[in-house]
Amino acid sequence: MAKEFTIPEFTIPSAATSALLERDIAADTPLDNWPTEAFRTTSTEILALREGILAAIRGDAGGAIVRVAPEGLSDQDICTLYWNFFTALCRPVPQYSSGELIYPVEVKAGAAETSHYSNSNKTGNYHTDGTLLPQLPDVAFLFGLSAATGGETLLMDVNGLVQQLTQINPAHVAELSRPVPFDVKDQMAGIKIKRQPVLTSTANGYELRYVRMYIEQGFAAEGAPMPPELLAAMDEFDKISSAAAGDAEAVLLERGVGLLWDNRRMLHGRHPFQESTSSRRLRRIYGVQDDGRAN
Question: Are 4 and 154 in contact (CB under 8 A)?
Answer without folding.
Answer: no
